[in-house]
Amino acid sequence: MPAFKRTAVTLLAAAAVTGTTLATATTASAADYRCKTSSSATYDDPSYDGPDSDNWSFDVKLCAKRSGGYIYTTATVYWDGPYSSGTNNHFTFNKARFHLQTKKSARGTDPVVKYANYTGLEGALENSSSSGNGSYMTGTIKTKATAASYLADGYIQLDWSGDGKDYKSPILFSASPTV
């Protein structure tokens, strides 16, 4: 092989290896989400007093990450509801939502920087499996970062059908670790 071609092949191979190394390094250095999962108490459907189960319990995984000058926050809600929720479900809630917040870590109360209400939770709850279980993942909030630390926080609000009231008090969960 002539010297020119050999040099060109060597440079192309080196560039390919360097490109792979850089791409791998970028992927490897991308911030992973830092998450915390916490559980709620059990909640009783106030409009039902029959013999069947009507209790709901929730776990929420709140996650935050810092990447490329931004903070990303998201949440996943898991539940164990009544075993019959998959068959008689569309009249359980008038409304249900997950209120996701991006907060700046501070002394005292952490101020909310950005938030979103995810009302798709109602449909997910009312379409649980026949054993009453399910999960729902919110969208992701993207916020421009400063040097401060940030975290994900949030809560569930339920408006039960048939009780004549609006949203109940928020069901609170533990915030994510800071990023």
UniProtKB/TrEMBL annotation:
Keywords of this protein's UniProt record, alphabetized?
Signal
Q: Does Signal show up as a keyword for this record?
A: yes
Q: What are the boundaries of the signal sequence? A: 1-30
User: What protein am I looking at?
Assistant: Secreted protein
- Specify the species: Streptomyces tropicalis
